[in-house]
Write a structure and sequence with these properties.
By secondary structure, the protein is α+β, with helices and mostly antiparallel strands. It has two helices and four strands; from the N terminus they run H-E-E-E-E-H.
Length: 93
Amino acid sequence: MHAARSAGATGGTVMVGKGTGSKETGQFLGISLASEKDVVLIVSEAAKKAGIMKAIVEQAGPQTPAGAICFSLPVTQVAGLRQVEPEEQPTEE
């Protein structure tokens, strides 16, 4: 989140996930162990997307100990987020 905030993200949701990728997981007493990781979901304005993604990759990407990956999906509707006040909406010039 620190990397994303440095590029203008105002917040996000952090969830704990478990990896089940191509690497084999270890076992302990017959129980599979999967590495835990944080999954961060960020909804932002389209104009901020490239900067946020670039900051995440540069500061926490695969070449760093964090090993983060980043992808985007279009969001066409949301419910439950705060309303954008009229003075916060971008103006066309």
